[in-house]
Amino acid sequence: MLLRKHYFDLVTADDRVRIVYAAELSLGPLEVRYVAVLRADPGAPAKTETALGGATEPERSGDVMTFASPALGMDCTLRRTMPGPRVEILPDGALSWDCHTLRAEVTLRDRGETLSGVGYAETLETTVAPWDYPWDELRWGRLHEDDSSVVWTVLEGGGASRAYFARGPELTTGESIPDLGEVALLRSGRIGDTVLSLIPGLERLPGRILGLSETKQLSTSRAGGRAIHETVRWPARA
Question: How far is the first Cα of the chain from the last one, in angstroms, to the nearest whole number?
């Protein structure tokens, strides 16, 4: 089993959000590549568009990363201004979280419209099926303020709780999830009904992954920064 997922995001000065996913899943005879974009604008409900196939790997040259999806009518350029760490959450490459772009200046062209703002990018790679993870809950987020950035992953339950925070290329200690106020709900529901709903062969995946519940939000910090963050909960084991 191999899952490699790239994530990029952008928040504009007027709170328009774009989140892009590009992933490749190999699970026995099931081979799937897909790209998706979540579009959220103030005063309108957020929508997710998914396309199967196409390129799933961004191009990287130094501090510049580019990605394009003709099927979704979008392309983006991220100019990294702050790197983040690579974290081996599970040993021997079983679960790797690469926060290679903790902060970036982003330009994204979306169906002929150009958006610019501050963003973030990461790559997650796992050889362990997510339904076999020991955890019950994941809390993830990234916050950009005028003079600082932070990203976090907090995993709880299953006797394997752990927390990771970074404000630059190294992990930090003594941190806690920032106090955040909600600006907008970006997505909520079971991922089998939302982000994975168009993927063929979905019925082959166990209920513990299809039943994952996700709540994703755009929030503001006390200093006026913007955070994209989520809570994911696994169903109880049978």
Answer: 22
